[in-house]
What does this fold into?
Amino acid sequence: MTRNVLVTGGAGYIGSHACKALAANGYVPVTVDNFATGWRDAVKYGPLVEADLLDRAALDAAFATYRPIAVMHFAAFSLVGEARQNPGKYWRNNVLGSLTLIEAAIAAGCLDFVFSSTCATYGDQDGVVLNEESPQRPHNAYGSSKRAVEEMLRDFGASDGLRSVIFRYFNVAGSDPDGEIGENHRPETHLIPVMLEAIDGKRPELVINGTDYPTHDGTCVRDYVHVVDLVEAHLRGLEWLRDGKGSRVFNLGTGAGFSVKEVLSHARAATGHKVPHRFGPRRSGDAASLVSGSQRALQELGWDPKHSSLKRMIQDAWTWHKTGGYSS
Ligand code: UDP
It folds into this structure.
């Protein structure tokens, strides 16, 4: 048996960190990426297959060449605002791409599947802490496309014995503490990297999206988790499947919610710089509050998100930001 793991989206932010963690733990991450949003510079820890997930023949060839023992599926579009404006892009890529991948994996006999899902599948639920049994009521095509793939995995579990660990991420932040890889989006829309761009003058200011939410200070509350902790949970999820423990859903967050204004004040403490900002209107598709109940991951996977203080995440993101990021 090989130690190969097929990693879709391995050139992206979370996928590249997963590749590093896999390689550090004796696996060979085989990146499958079409570079729609990924970076060639981020593929450092194993072979690359440049392919689109809608290209079944290319996927079949990748499974035949590398005979992976499992799939980690990160490749997806993930911007809430864009999903509201262009739902077709999300349904085509996230849902049809996943269907093609799942069918190729099953045809190759590769039945252990780790899937990157999202708290956006829960939608907006009035500030309650969300656990894995909370109802899923996504209110944008990003959340609905991910929920559809979750359902697809369950259906193929029943029909073909596919075993899946589904991780519902809350807000992933921070970067590799060694500075080898990091978070780089084109264009950047995520709160912490946008804040850092405002600090170093790459953009004039941060616009706070809405101050009239029903939260303690009117700005959106999110649960931030360090990417290093997040990918560590994926290794545990992979071992869970390889130990024959079967399909399971886990939230990945810390259970601590921070408002946009609170993240801003932590950024000042973590970087020593004030974040130039102004207040703007709400961003379409945003939930007021998304906070995880993560007991299941802690108890069943033995997960310990020890890097996930806001200060540490911002400091690691700042270290990466100062490198200038990827060039290609
Ligand atoms: N946000 C903001 N200004 C920005 C980027 C983000 O106010 O320039 C807010 C955003 O509206 C949300 C929170 O920060 O309430 C986290 O957004 P992000 O895009 O980082 O992650 P998401 O929650 O959409 O996955």
Summary: The radius of gyration is 19 Å. Residues 80, 171, 189-191, 194, 206-209, 220, 222, 260, 283, 286 surround uridine-5'-diphosphate (CB under 6 Å). DSSP finds ten helices and 15 strands in the chain. The CA atoms of residues 189 and 265 lie 19 Å apart.
